[in-house]
Design goal:
287 residues; mainly alpha; 12 helices; globular
Length: 287
């Protein structure tokens, strides 16, 4: 894969990662478009290209580290403190707040993995079918519009329990399918569970870190077993990673601004317009 193509895909990932419009869908559509014009890009459903998509997702984790650095450092420090205190108490009582939040996050990641691995073959077929991507984009738009009409949420992270973590984890598992935005699914279902918008957003973004790291590791093992990065190459992976990280910082700041002001319906209209363009053939894709 040419470096300019890798950088272009990384920029698309950076722009759309945190906007609730499915960055994966945009990359898949762009990959189909490039293939239709005879550019050397592996099939979107290939193991190598799925790994590339995950690596540029890793790049946007750098953006989370930059934008949410104070919150991440505070969460890490308090989790270690609470975990140590809980261990010294002999695990006799329930875990303190931050230790409990860490365990709930791991529960969400575990459930995401169960859903993702169980439906992996079905999800990979969506990578090969732009019309199915259009259908999942329509579903994402419906969720976003519904979310903006919800009354104010009252629950803070202190009130988060197993039910909320389970709902968000399962939702994130289905968001491995192109067109179902990971950030939209986790934020929306966090709001459905009663979380305040701020906490739904932060839970979603922090949850991305272990989820994307785990998914990338599993996909890398699969690619290694298949014989390597045919058609992609390490320079392309590096280019996509760096560009996605830089562009993602701006994108994340924008989505946080919009989310706190309940303006997600703007993105609903956008994904519906994109889905309509795909289904109407206005976006020229290979047959």
């Amino acid at each position: 894969m040419a470096l300019w193509i890798a950088a272009l895909l990384g920029a698309v990932q950076g722009v759309f990662m945190f906007l609730p419009v499915s960055s994966t869908a945009h990359m898949v559509l762009l990959e189909h478009w490039l293939i239709g014009r005879s550019y050397a890009v592996p099939a979107p459903e290939s193991a190598q290209m799925i790994l590339f998509n995950l690596v540029v997702h890793l790049g946007t984790l750098v953006s989370i580290g930059v934008v949410f650095a104070p919150q991440l450092l505070r969460f890490t420090r308090y989790t270690l403190r609470d975990g140590y205190a809980w261990a010294r108490a002999g695990w006799r009582q329930g875990p303190p707040l931050y230790a409990r939040l860490f365990l709930l996050g791991m529960l969400s990641v575990l459930l995401t993995g169960i859903v993702g691995l169980s439906l992996k073959a079905a999800f990979e077929q969506v990578f090969a079918a732009p019309s199915l991507v259009a259908a999942t984009l329509i579903a994402t738009g419906a969720l976003l519009l519904w979310t903006d009409r919800l009354p104010p949420r009252r629950r803070t992270l202190r009130g988060t329990g197993v039910g909320t973590a389970t709902l968000i984890g399962v939702a994130q598992g289905f968001a491995l399918m192109p067109g179902l935005s990971r950030s939209a699914m986790t934020i929306v279902f966090g709001l459905f569970a009663g979380l305040k918008r701020r906490w739904a957003a932060e839970y979603s973004f922090f949850l991305a870190i272990p989820t994307i790291c785990a998914a990338t590791l599993l996909q890398a093992v699969e690619v290694y077993q298949l014989g390597g990065l045919d058609g992609v190459g390490y320079p392309a992976l590096a280019a996509g990673f760096v560009v996605a990280a830089l562009v993602g910082i701006v994108s994340l700041r924008l989505v946080v601004y919009c989310l706190y002001r309940a303006q997600l319906k703007v993105f609903a209209f956008y994904v519906w317009a994109l889905a309509a363009a795909i289904l109407a053939g206005l976006i020229e894709l290979p047959a």
